[in-house]
Amino acid sequence: MVDSHVSRALAAMKREPARRWTVAALAREAGLSRAPFARRFERATGVPPLKYLTGLRLRAAATRLVASDARLAEIAADVGYATEFSFAKAFKRAYGIAPGVFRRRAWGLSGALTVTSLARAA
Q1: CB-based contacts of 120, cutoff 8 Å, min separation 6
Q2: Is it true that domain 58-121 has CATH number 3.90.350?
Q3: Per-residue pLDDT averaged across 85-106, rounded?
Q4: Hey, what's the torsion of the CAs at 55, 11, 116, 67, to 10 degrees?
Q5: Which of 38, 55, 56, 65 could make an S-S bridge to 103, C-beta 3.0–4.6 Å?
Q6: What's the N-to-C CA distance of the chain in angstroms?
Q7: pLDDT > 70? residue 104
Q8: Alpha helices, H only, the chain
């Protein structure tokens, strides 16, 4: 990533994924106004800032589902979802299966697992 402004926003998202981010707040982190930030972010990443944030949150959640036995509500809160229901809905939209099913399938598989391979298996 060459754009230092976008890099600052990405670092902030990764540092605080559960924060209630807005494009304006991310733009402040980047040191830009909202519209120029949104354009630069999409040019650099290929997706709008909040869509990127959703993907970041859901990948972190998928990793936690595989690597821990934390409750779904805890994982949801840790990655920025207000309710387990909203998390489950977003997760299913992204991965095609509910988070609990994703976890059960992950734990039932043998061999090396990655979030990417599990998403393909879904």
Answers
A1: none
A2: no
A3: 94
A4: -100
A5: 65
A6: 31
A7: yes
A8: 4-15, 23-30, 34-45, 49-67, 72-78, 84-95, 99-108, 115-121
Are 4 and 31 in contact, with CB atoms under 8 Å apart? no
DSSP one-letter code for 112: -
In this prediction, residue 114 carries a pLDDT of 55
Cβ atoms of 122 and 84 closer than 8 Å:
no
d(CA 30, CA 78): 23
Contact 79, 99 (CB under 8 A): no
| C-alpha to C-alpha distance for 103 and 122, rounded to whole angstroms | 11
Domain boundaries of the chain, sorted by first residue: 4-46, 58-121
Half-sphere exposure of 115 (CA within 13 A, CB side): 16
To the question of pTM greater than 0.90 for the whole model, the response is: no
Q: What is the 3-state secondary structure (H, E, C) of 79-95?
A: CCCCCHHHHHHHHHHHH
Per-residue pLDDT, 107: 85
Map residue 114 onto helix, strand or coil.
Answer: coil
Per-residue model confidence (pLDDT) at position 120: 59
